[in-house]
Amino acid sequence: MPLWVFFFVILTLSSSSHCSPPPPLTLRMRRYADAIFTNSYRKVLGQLSARKLLQDIMSRQQGERNQERGARARLGRQVDSVWAEQKQMELESILVALLQKHRNSQG
């Protein structure tokens, strides 16, 4: 086979693959509509993912706030309890002193 025939065949085969006729208009419109739908669908999915992430973050922060409030409430009750015990001890010591003073004045 002569060399020029070999090149002719290769050029013919390679040019036919690049010069295929364009797809019909209906197929192009369908592809275009599919691309628009796909892009819109991806945007909606992204927004939903972002919304869920934001809700998760907000609920975590709310949970942490509730834990902090609970810890403050427990601490407040403990402080109140300690304060009440101190006041009770002070009152008892005052009563003991008054009783001793009363007994000494009678005796």
From TrEMBL:
The keyword Metal-binding does not apply. Residues 1-19 form the signal peptide. SMART domains: GLUCA. One of its GO terms (molecular function) is peptide hormone receptor binding. InterPro entries: Glucagon_GIP_secretin_VIP, VIP/GHRH-like. One of its GO terms (cellular component) is perikaryon. Residues 32-54 form the Glucagon / GIP / secretin / VIP family domain. It is found in: Secreted. GRF is released by the hypothalamus and acts on the adenohypophyse to stimulate the secretion of growth hormone. This is Somatoliberin.
